[in-house]
Here is the input.
Amino acid sequence: MDYWTRECESIQQVVDICQDPATLEMFNADDIEYDGIVIKINELDVCQLLGTTNHHPRRGMAYKFPAQQAATTILSVDYQVGRTGIVTPVANLVPVTLS
Here is the structure.
């Protein structure tokens, strides 16, 4: 996939792109795994108004795609005893490939 950018005139256009199933399908069709997109503000006045934190400017944010889900089968359940005597059940699962 080439460098992908979209310029939007309103926040509603940004929301529409993020919620469009075609956007997720486009990224899923590529060889690289993507977990989201970055939204940045290009207007200098707005960037200055938003300011920064100690570590990061507030002019950009990440939109994460919904997590992938898959069903699997429980093979067995083992019980582990911790050093304080608490018993914790641990499930052994059939491996599932995602992405």
